[in-house]
Amino acid sequence: MNRIETRMKTLEERNEKAFITYITAGLPNYEKTKEIIKTSMEAGCDVIELGIPFSDPVADGPVIQDASFRAINNGATLAKTFEMMKEIRAEGVEQAILFMMYYNHVYHLGVENFVKACIESGVDGLIIPDLPFEEQYELKNELSKYDNAPILIQLVAPVSKQRIPMILENARGFVYCVSQMGVTGNGANFHKEIREYLENVKAVSKIPVMMGFGIRTYEDVESLVDTIDGAIVGSHFIKLLDESAYDCKVSADYIREFKSKLND
Description:
The structure is a single chain. The protein has helices at residues 3-14, 30-42, 62-73, 78-90, 103-109, 111-121, 137-143, 163-168, 194-204, 218-221, 235-243, 248-262; strands at residues 18-24, 47-51, 96-100, 125-127, 151-152, 154-156, 175-178, 209-212, 230-233. It is α/β, with parallel strands linked by helices. Strand 4 (125-127), helix 7 (137-143) and strand 5 form a beta-alpha-beta unit.
């Protein structure tokens, strides 16, 4: 098991819900990104989604699009993010970190080179929203060659029951349930049949089921907490960081409060 799977197993043994946050790599700079990662983990964040800035996202709403734009203008790149990962691992950070990214980065670097760079820098998982399940074979094949390669996290949208088992058959880590149609950051405008959808995924999944997209506070998921194994906050967390001028205490307090309520 890698770090993500190990953390999920620990939470299961403790009967705890997971809390996952999203951070844009290189914003406002890489030193601050490292600081946010460390303080977020210390505050109780179970997995960090490290967003790789990209010019043409398909899943990100205005908040994360703007964050990526500013990070790119500040010089953020995939290569620099790999270097930051090496630094943070050398500094003793052993918690689970995954990349939330788009396939253009992988394609540009080359699948083999990309996977090797992930291994060398200690990346635990990958979420690639624009890589359809049916087209994952090349990346999966390369990942399967190494015991210490990152795992590919599967996204499941509110689709038909028939498609869910196929996507989740060999899924690892956790399932990312997209809780609304459209892009991130639209507030708690969840799919009208959200509970039935989550229950369908939960019935099929052998691994923890996480809910993401549109979540801001614990109250957004309170009525569904008995159905999910954890929550993911992206756009709201980026907005919180921006509004607090990247005050790590503010973000850490938010994580502690959300995590505590999830597990009351």
